[in-house]
From TrEMBL:
This is STR3N protein. The lineage of its organism: Eukaryota, Metazoa, Chordata, Craniata, Vertebrata. Residues 1-22 are annotated as: Disordered. Pfam families: MENTAL (PF10457). GO terms for molecular function: cholesterol binding. It comes from Anthoscopus minutus. Residues 48-130 form the MENTAL domain. The chain crosses the membrane at residues 55-76, 96-116.
Length: 130
């Protein structure tokens, strides 16, 4: 007579006990079921996820930091008004930081549009804006 070892028999009986039976399925409390459904619906109604909100804040602070650095650079070179006129109206690629500011504005617009308004889930918007 072939006898099944005790460990294998216990493992088989525990796996059978872990599977829900029809009796267990019908004993679900309707109030608990409604509470679970409402909790899932509440998650879907949330406007923007925490990670997405943090990323949008990071992009916003990036724009503000670049703007602050550009204003400091304008002030150091001899006054904001005269240097601003020289860098924007008489743009020179080698001495002007206006292009860095415009790139930060473009990056901000693309990333906020893609991740906050359109809620894209793909990485291409980051690659395009970099």
């Amino acid at each position: 007579m072939n006898r099944v070892p005790a460990d294998a028999e216990n493992a088989h009986s525990s796996s059978v006990e872990s599977c829900p039976s029809l009796r267990d399925v019908h004993s679900i409390n309707p109030t608990q079921l409604m509470a679970r459904i409402e909790s899932y619906e509440g998650r879907e109604k949330k406007g923007i996820s925490d990670v997405r909100r943090t990323f949008c804040l990071f992009v916003t602070f990036d724009l503000l930091f670049i703007t602050l650095l550009w204003i400091i650079e304008l002030n150091v070179k001899g006054g904001i008004e005269t240097t601003l006129e020289k860098e924007v109206l008489h743009y020179d690629y080698s001495s002007s930081y206006f292009d860095i500011f415009l790139l930060a504005v473009f990056r901000f617009k693309v990333l906020i549009l893609a991740y906050a308004m359109c809620r894209l889930r793909h990485w291409w918007a980051i690659a395009v804006s970099s």
